[in-house]
Predict the structure.
Amino acid sequence: MIIRKLHLINFKNHQEKSFEFSPQINCFVGNNGVGKTNVLDALHYLSVAKSFLGNTDLNNIKTDEDFFAIEGEISDGEKENIIKVQMPKEAKKIIKKNDKSYDRIADHIGFLPSVIISPYDSNLISDSGESRRKFLDAMISQTDSDYLFNLIQYQKTVQQRNALLKNFARNRYFDAENLKIYNEPLIKFGTKIFEKRQQFTDSIVPLIQQYYDIISNGNEKVTVIYQSHLQENDFGTLLQENSEKDRMLTYTSTGIHKDDLVFEMNGNSLKKIGSQGQQKSFLIALKLSQMNRIKELTAKTPVLLLDDIFDKLDDTRVSQLIELVNQEHFGQIFITDTNLERTEKVVKKINEESKIFEI
C-alpha cells in the first residue's frame, strides 16, 4: 500500500496543506510545535479513522473552524483509491472510499494497515492494562475483520449488562435470571476474542526476541505473556461464580475486558528492571513484530510511521533500526525529526528514493 498524496483542511494547526509523497521514504522536518506529528496523525486517520495521540475527533478541528477534512490518494497495487475523512462539529464523522461512504467505520479498518512508533509508546509499559488491551485489539483488528466485529458486540453487551446491574442497585432488587440473558453473547463473542488474542500473542513472541536482539545487541531474553481470566476457567463458569460479586460491584468483574499483556525481561517485569534504552528497544521490537504479522496475514505491506524516534534513541540504536527497516523491506516510511542534517544523513544511509518536507 502506497500513500501518493495527502490534503488537509482545518486539521489541528494546519489550515490547508498538501503533500505528494515518495513511495519509499518521506521526512517531515521542523521545530517542535510546527505540526510534524499532526501530519503523521492525519495519515493514521486514513488508516484506522482515529488519532494515535488519543485526542477526540472534535479536538482535532482547528480552532474557530467548523470541521476538518483529510483526503488521501492511495495505491493498492491495482488502482488508485481516494480515502476521505470528514469531521463536522455538529454531525457524525464520515469516511468515504472513492466517494462512497462506509456503512460502518469498522468496515474501513484493514484497508490501509499502518504501524506507528512514537514516544507515546512508553505508555504501554507505564499505563494500566487498558492501554495494552487497546494496543492488542488494534493489532489484531487490522488483520481480522471478524475479530473487530466480535469485539464491538462484546463491548456493547458488557455495557448493557453493567447498565442492568446498576439498575438493580438503584431499585434495590436483583434478578439473576434476567442477568443471565447477557451471558450467552458474552460467552460467544468473548471466547472467540480470547482465542484470537492468545494465538496472536504466541505468534509475535519469537519475532519480538529476534528484532530486540538486532536493535539492542544485548543478551536479554524478552517476552510477552498474555493474561486472561479465561485461562483459569471457561467463561460460563466464571460468570456464574462471579454473579454475586457483580451484583455488589454493579459491573461485570470478569471477562476478556480485564485481560492484560505482561512484558518481561529475563523473567522479571520490564517496567521494574529494564533501563530506558532496553524499554525503548523492546517497544520498537514489539511494533516491528506487529508489522511483520500484518504483512504475513494480509499480504499488505503496512505504512510505517516513525514519530520523533531519532530524538529518543542513541546513535547505535538508530543505526540498527534504520539498517533493519532497510533489510526487511517494510515499505513506505514516514519520519518526523527536528534536525535536517541528521535526517538527510539517515535518508542517505538507507539509500532509497526519498522526499524531505520542511514544515
